[in-house]
Amino acid sequence: MIRKVSPAPDKEQCLGGRRGLMLVLSSPSGAGKTSISRRLLAEDGELDLSISATTRNRRPGEVEGKDYLFVSNKDFNLMINNREMLEYAKVFDHYYGTPSAPVVEALRVGRDVLFDIDWQGTQQLADANSDDVVSVFILPPSTRDLEKRLLSRAQDSVNVVAARMSKASDEISHYREYDYILVNSNLDQAVEEVKTILKAERLRRDRQIGLTEFVKQLRAGY
Fold first, then answer.
1. What is the pTM of this model?
2. CATH code for position 109
3. Does any domain span residue 118?
4. How many structural domains compose the chain?
5. Mean pLDDT per segment of 10 residues, for the chain of length 222 residues?
6. Strand, coil or helix: 140
7. CA-based nearest residue to 134, from 159, 114, 161
């Protein structure tokens, strides 16, 4: 006897989509995480940028609500006390942190969120949301190259550049805490490598909503 099998519904109809992920890019200042982030956001329609709040002054060309949320120390502390931050840290005498509400909503509807944060923030995110975090640490090709990049930006004084170089060694020492490591010798190649990571992580079994039921249907002959 030949059993009549109904046409199989589309995979997209069977699966309920997927839960979004938090893609973290970290690096010493000048190693290229911001450049890579901008390229990813421009080229990937499923990726949103997490806008950090900061107490530092706005730099030339930065836009409120696009690059950062610029807040006072008082307002930043209120956000911490009200548990409105996913993570926060003090870097070079200024506070940086991630407001939680926009991120939680994005993940819920299946959007991925990109974080341009340091190792302290990454650690906090991973401790509280380990299943959702994918972390990438970006290394410069050399210390000399890192210093050259910092000086060429012309955004900071010589003293600030020296402070960033001094801090770089400590930041690099945390590379083992990340899921992936890449050396940014070439921007185009680095962007493609992060895209590959993102593509693979989106396909992870645990992120597929409705996968168990879909497999049951396949095994039942539907």
1. 0.80
2. 3.40.50.300
3. yes
4. 1
5. 36 68 91 91 95 93 92 96 92 90 92 92 89 94 76 67 76 93 94 97 92 90 86
6. coil
7. 114
